[in-house]
UniProtKB/TrEMBL annotation:
The keyword Cell membrane does not apply. Keywords: Metal-binding, Zinc. GO terms for molecular function: metal ion binding. Residues 10-108 form the Yippee domain. It comes from Stachybotrys chlorohalonatus (strain IBT 40285). This is Protein yippee-like. Pfam families: Yippee-Mis18. The keyword Hydrolase does not apply. PROSITE patterns: YIPPEE (PS51792). Belongs to the yippee family.
Length: 118
């Protein structure tokens, strides 16, 4: 496998049950974010997840409408999705997933396998 496809096949799985939730290639590499359990990563997309109800949360960057994201196999909380941001500067986050680094585990697995589980 060449280095590029090796990177592309990296996935992030639920730490509790190993369900693959994210592709490393979907990670937005601006910076690390602050999440509830410590460090958080921002992703364009997530797989194999369920959503909670939309609610508002005050953050250091202003009010955001978010909904919590859960692993669809074991129901563990793993992060949230941004639905709306108060400030224009934060609008790049809308629709994106802020995932808790502490609750994920990096694994390698084919993307095809991940997509087949959708
Ligand atoms: Zn899980």
């Amino acid at each position: 496998m060449d280095p590029i496809s090796a990177i592309a096949s990296q996935v992030w799985a639920c730490k509790t049950c190993d369900n693959p939730l994210l592709r490393d290639m979907d990670r937005i590499a601006y910076q690390n974010f602050r999440a509830v359990h410590g460090k958080g990563f921002l992703f364009h997309n997530a797989f194999n997840v369920d959503f909670g109800k939309t609610y508002e949360r005050q953050m250091t960057t202003g009010w955001h409408s978010i909904r919590d994201v859960y692993c669809n196999r074991c129901n563990a909380y793993v992060g949230w999705q941004y639905e709306k941001a108060e400030h224009e500067t934060q609008s790049y986050k809308v629709g994106k997933f802020l995932m808790e680094a502490e609750l994920l585990r990096q694994a390698s697995g084919a993307i095809e396998k991940l997509q087949a589980r959708l």
